[in-house]
Each structure stands twice: as C-alpha cells, then as structure tokens.
Amino acid sequence: MSDFEHRAAGREARRAAPHSPWTPKEEHRQDLLQRYLGALAHAAAAEAATEAGEPAAEPADTPPTRAGHRTGGRAPQSPHVRDVMRVPAVSVPGDLPFLDVARTLSRERLSAVPVVDAEDHVVGVVSESDLLAKAAVMAVPHRAGPLARLREHRLYEKSRGETAATLMTYPAVTVHPGDPVADAAWTAARSRLKRLPVTDHHGRLVGAVSRSDLLRSLVRDDAEIREEIESRILRREFLPASDVVEVAVDNGVVTLAGRLDTALVPQLVEAIRDIEDVTDVVDHLNAE
Question: What whole-number distance in Å separates Cα of residue 223 and Cα of residue 180?
C-alpha cells in the first residue's frame, strides 16, 4: 500500500470512528451488521463464481451464517425468501393520486410501496423520494437558470406526474419466494433498497421482504444461539450433565465451562459447532 493509500485509509478510519462511546445496544447492532456484511460477501463471491463457471470457495474469515454456514462439508440449510417475507404486501394501483400514495406510506409506515396493475403485476415502485420531488416542484415551480433545469430534467419530468404510475421508479427491483435469503440480501444491498417486493414467476405481487427481515434470518443473536444449545442439545442429549455445564456466547463464539464426562466432551463440542451462526467453540470443561 502506498503512502497516499495509507493516509486515505487513516482519514477514512478517523471519519468512521464514533465521537462518543457506543451504548450496549449500538455495540450489538454493529456486531450484527458485521456478521450481515459477511453473509453479503459470501453471496457476492458465490454469484461471481457462478458467472465465471467455477464453484464458490468460501473465505476462511467469512463468518458462518444461516445462509452460509460451514458444516464440515455438509450442504448448508439456506433459508429462502418465502420463509421470511411478509404477506399480504401493501401495494397501490397505478391510477392512485399522489396524495393518496403519501397517505398510504404514512399509514403503513413505509418508505416505498409497489405499484401494481389490474392483475397484480408489479410495474414499479413509488417512494418517499418520488413524492418529495413532486412536493419540491409544487413548492418551487420554476428553478432559476437553464443549466439547473437541464441537469435535473429527468427529475422534473417525473415530478410533474399526478398518479403513482407517473411518479414511480421502474422497472421495480424484485425477488422471488424461492430465492435464497443471502441472494435477496445482496440484491437489497446492491440496489440500496430497504424493502423489496416479492413476485411469482409471472411478476405478480405475493409479498414483501425488508432488510431487517433478511438480517434477522441471516444472523441470530447470541441469546438465541445460547437458548438452542441449552434447550436442544444439553437438555435433550446431555440431560444428566445439563445442570453442570455452563454456556456463554459472545459474537458467535461459544465458551463451555463446568464438568462433563471426558468421553462426551468431543461429542458436545461437535454438536455445538454444527449449530448455524456458531463461529467457534472454546472448551473449558473440566478445567481446574
């Protein structure tokens, strides 16, 4: 890395550094974000490998997730969009006046909504940004200077619309119910969308999925991992020893402490390693 690149990286790091200490809630959010980005990176690598006609090689430092869990050679159990999407999805017809579109977004607490035709085909998406452009033109009908009008010609043309169909952005970015969640997350990240319409293979609206839905599906928090270990593994498979084994989970790393028959320790560790979102297991069992 050159001196220039070093200085640029330093400036970027300083800009990214928080000005005040993170709260516990923010630390948790940042942790989930890092693991989410790991899943996106895996999906992007898989997509690139598919386009190149090669099998995707999972990087060793990519955090295992629901959509990319390393299980010692076994195929991952990837969730699909149908498992996390919300139904029914809110939509608006193309002839709905823009004020009614604004009311729909406000009532449903959405930032965007799909526009559908008479047969429920998704023809576009109208967002708060589209409505804000309309409101701006209404407030200031004539911009000063021809250069500004030329530069923003497309925005002005669209903002003259009066209905959802004339204000919407098209074609809509959509996903299908059978798409892997990791692929849908990559689509949302690449298109910078908070919410994606879900359509069948005929383009008809069947649901919607948000980035938060995808995040929850890709990454479970530490409390959920700990609960699965205690309820599904310890209480069912190691019942006599469940009261003397202590489980702690931090950022996907499971730490085991307490007492357990030495012959059973490898079996327990292996069972925990196979749990989705577990990144490592630290064995302190029977340690004095």
Answer: 25
DSSP state string for 68-104 = S---TTSPP---BHHHH-BSSPP-EETT-BHHHHHHH
Supply the pLDDT for residue 94.
94
The Cβ of residue 171 has, within 10 Å, a number of other Cβ atoms equal to 11
- Better-scored residue on pLDDT, 144 or 74: 144
Rounded to whole angstroms, how far apart are CA atoms 284 and 96? 63
Q: CB atoms < 10 A from the CB of 271, how many? A: 16
Question: pLDDT grade, residue 54 (50/70/90)?
Answer: low
The whole model's pTM is what? 0.55
Q: Mean pLDDT throughout 168-181?
A: 92
Alpha carbon distance 201, 205 (integer Å): 10
Phi first, then psi, for residue 75 (nearest 5°) are -65, 135
